[in-house]
Amino acid sequence: MLPFAELNDFGKETNLNEAKFMAAKKLKPGDFNDDTLFEFMNSGTRDYIASRVLLLNGFAGQGSVLAVTSIEKTLKTILIKMGESFRADGKGHNLNNLIDSIKAIEGNYFTMEEEDFIKNLNNSYRIRYFISEEEDLVLFLPSSRILLKLDMLYCGLIKKEPLLSISEGSKLFDMYEKGHMPRSQLLEKNAYFNPLLSDTLESEVQWCDKYEHIKNGKTFSQKFKPFKGGLISNMWQAPPEYLK
After folding, report:
1. What's residue 133's pLDDT?
2. Distance separating alpha carbons of residues 184 and 165, to the nearest angstrom
3. Residue 6 in this model has a pLDDT that exceeds 70
4. H-helix or E-strand containing 72?
5. What CATH number has the domain bearing residue 164?
6. CA-CA distance, 71 to 29, in Å (whole number)?
7. What contacts 212, CB < 8 A, 6 or more positions away?
8. CA–CA dist 181, 161 (Å, integer)
9. Which residues touch 162 (CB under 8 Å, ≥6 apart)?
10. In terms of residue numbers, what domain contains 44?
11. 238 domain-assigned
12. How far is CA 115 from each of CA 4, 107, 220, rounded to the nearest angstrom?
């Protein structure tokens, strides 16, 4: 490795002066035209659909990571449409900061339930490089419950302004609704389109992932198993029965 260099997110050497420039970089509305903003939002939609496929098949951890990236791109698109910029460096991934930026413009944009879901799901991004986490981490991720909350959030956001104007006309999200893309990838067990599914998704047997990394205690563990959703009182905390 070159002196005064570090590895960037792609494993390539980056001069520290360049890294400092990247750390200060922001993307603003003027950096996007209609086409580039559409493509950015389109990548978020594909992350959302991929997250759904993983969650439907019991991959709670991996599905949650993609859920975070889909929400990140969605919130950043909202900010651009609101006339605001966002950070384009590694610290720009934090969903909590994006929520705060949007609320500074429109304080009631999110419901309390939506905000609580986003802030808890935000921790899932840390399992990408789980063993190298610097801070202690304990995560419990029930697949069906996350799918339920994700669908209600994502579909709700894309069905209202400022995102609705990007999606309409079989250009993006509604391609799945209209069957131009596989409809099942969007509609299977989607409580936004079928509210009667909510209770089922809350209570059904579902794959749950638990990640724990306690540095001082040198604990590093992962646990994956199906569990009755009806026994989960706190969505983000593993019940004692799950740990048996």
Report:
1. 67
2. 24
3. no
4. helix 60-81
5. 1.20.120
6. 19
7. 137, 138, 139, 219, 220, 221, 222
8. 23
9. 78, 81, 82
10. 32-132+144-194
11. no
12. 40, 12, 29
Q: Find residue 206's DSSP bridge partners.
A: 227
Among 210, 233, 56, 224, smallest CA distance to 147 is for: 56
Q: Kindly state the DSSP code that residue 94 receives in the 8-state scheme.
A: -
Closest CA to 96 of 113, 120, 126, 79: 120
Q: What is the mean pLDDT of the chain?
A: 85
Q: If DSSP codes are grouped into helix, strand and coil, which group holds residue 162?
A: coil
CA atoms within 13 A on the CB side of 72: 23
Residue 12 pLDDT greater than 50, yes or no: no
pLDDT of residue 34: 86
Say which residue, 16 or 93, is predicted with more confidence.
93
Beta carbons within 8 Å of 107's beta carbon, 6+ residues apart = none
The answer to whether residue 2 scores a pLDDT higher than 80 is no
Structure tokens of 26?
Answer: 């922001």
- The DSSP line for 31-71 is G--HHHHHHHHHHHHHHHHHHHHHHHTT-HHHHHHHHHHHH
What is the number of structural domains in the chain? 1
d(CA 229, CA 204): 5
CB 68 within 8 A of CB 75: no
Q: Is the pLDDT of residue 189 over 50?
A: yes
Q: What is the pTM of this model?
A: 0.86
Residue 71 belongs to some domain of the structure? yes
SS3 13: strand
> Does any domain span residue 219?
no
DSSP state of 237: S
Residue 181, domain member (yes or no): yes
The pLDDT confidence band at residue 179, using thresholds 50, 70 and 90, is confident
